[in-house]
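Kindly review both lines to help learners:
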Amino acid sequence: MKTRKRNARPWWRSPKVVRRILIGALSSGLLIAAGLWLAMALGTGHEAQTYLAQPGPAPRFSLPTTSGVSFDSSEHIGKHNLLLYFSEGIGCGACWDQIVDLEADWSRFQAQDVELVSVMVDPLGQLKSEAAARGITGPVAYDGDKAVSERYNAMEASMHPGTKPGHTFVLVTKAGQMIWRWDWGGHGKPMYLDVNELYGYVSDSLQKAGPGAKLSRDLADWSGPSDDRAKAVQATRVASADVMVARSGQKPTWP
């Protein structure tokens, strides 16, 4: 029978065992950290969409885009509804996947007369390269000084508050009114909005806004630029006229 030598180390203090314990602890820590990161990146749900009961005039802006043509939001008043998409851009794969998936299923949005505009703050050259690599054809606008993102309050619901936008959609009607928005819900929520859900929110919000997506206040109290007011008035009248013709066969006359 073997006897243990005096002053011999207990088995659990031997270098081999200590090494194994340390390696196991380190591996467990890495797995836990990876799991937490994955939970923050993917999440399991998101905040509910928000229909703005009191819409307000959308801030006008003009930004350069990856196509080389500037995008001017005022040129779309009276012509199209706009879906503005603010995102983290470079470094956020899900943010770019969102655009790719939307463009692949855009025909039903187009039927609602909606145009998509993506807004990011990364260097324009990087945005051009990423958009080209992913086959994105729609406008990706460069908001270098972050002024537009800040005016639309898109800088706080982000993994980098104040530095980059997060994941925000804002729906602007032909009359130049913001009527709906959706913001990333924070850590543990996905930086992605299912395209079917997004279409439902956009469609429902336009329906709630009514003919012409009319303004939240009397047009006589319009506080924006006069040329935008004229376009908004015309957009509202055209849509209202279409509804009246469909219902009664009579087209209204305007003073």
